[in-house]
Amino acid sequence: MTGAAAPAALAEPSERVGRAWTTSLSLVNGAIWAGWYGPIQILLALQAAELAPAGTAKESVLAWVTGAGAAVSMVANPLFGALSDRTTSRLGRRTPWIVAGVAGGAVALVLLAGARSVAAMAVGWCGVQLTLNAAFAAVTAALPDRVPPGQRGAVGGWLGAAQILGVVAGTGLATAGGGLAGGYRACAAFAVLGALPYVLLHRDLVLPAGRRPAAGPVAVLRGLWISPRRHPDLAWAWLTRFLINLGNALALLYLLYYLRDVLRRPDPGGGVLILTALNGVTLLGTVVVGGIWSDRTGRRKPFVLGAGVIMAAATGLLAGWQTWTGALCAAALLGVGFGVFTSVDLALMTEVLPAAADRAKDLGVINIANSLPQVAAPALAAPLVHHLGGYRVLYAVAAAIGLVGALLVRRIRGVA
User: Fold this and answer.
1) What is the mean pLDDT of residues 299-319?
2) 59-89 as b/e, with b when 16 or more CB fall inside 10 Å?
3) Which terminal residue of the chain, N or C, has fewer Cβ atoms less than 10 Å from its own Cβ?
């Protein structure tokens, strides 16, 4: 152990973080989400329609590509989190992975723009997921590294606001980029520029080499397993996040096709941008307020439960009111619920982590609950749309799944 450096890197933080640090971390978080959601919302769907072989549905191509990318994400997030926990660079544990991940993600997005086959498209998207997840694992771990528990709802709110702004920015860049290549390149540039303030202006905490966890491959892989029997609160929190995100993923995955094929919108891409922007406005109205309110009351579970119920009701609207007006109302309501859920659930997750030495790895395992729905959603959505009743059934199932997830948060015992 070397003086005070080890406690600073591993101890529970007690000093409140300032606005500049929160703003910079939020900006890099938003930049990563722009790198993901410009493709997810617009570019991958257009590319799938362009590259789908004769006789193959564009929905199936999109499902295969996004599913492959999500599978990579599930492995990359906890793995890079574990490597981040073991990093003893003079730049800190997290900053090197933010730099490498964002730079690699930008390169992968540019390469994805040049894909000329479904296989190349899948490889490119898997590269984007691999690299941006390395950065995201480090960014997420910075919250419990630096922010005291009583401030995590508020900081989580700002990270959530940046997330939705990143989604809106990515969607806007993809729409305004002048085609697939321009859209991908715009998202790549935004990802790099958004990371610069945090990397250049803020020093990371350094882990002394003597306090590094076991770094061998066997130790790293073995550490990826977190026993639900030993840590039941984390298990219930994970399941809550997974089911709510699965319901949300089912609602959003085929939104472009829903507007084009069901609502017959003349400009479905523009329609997605409008719905995303409306969702972003209502989310921004609740994400920070919800986090601050949760901090002040000292409670997390009631906020997550209420947010999940609101989101389920919004998804139900898409099943029962299949008009453009219904889609607008659903987008607005989803934003209200997802805003509160995003900030408070993140704070809740940091309060069920087993050990400070494994924060990034454990949060990476938790973040599988974000990426696994991207694998499960296409597998569920394609048969629901094509064989079991179409989009009405799809959205009804999504609402039911999200509601179950919201109710399960009550099983957590160690957090109020």
Assistant:
1) 94
2) bebbbbbbbbbbbbbbbbbbbbbbbbbbbee
3) N
Instruction: Encode pLDDT of 74-89 as tens digits.
Output: 899 999 999 999 999 9
pLDDT of residue 48: 93
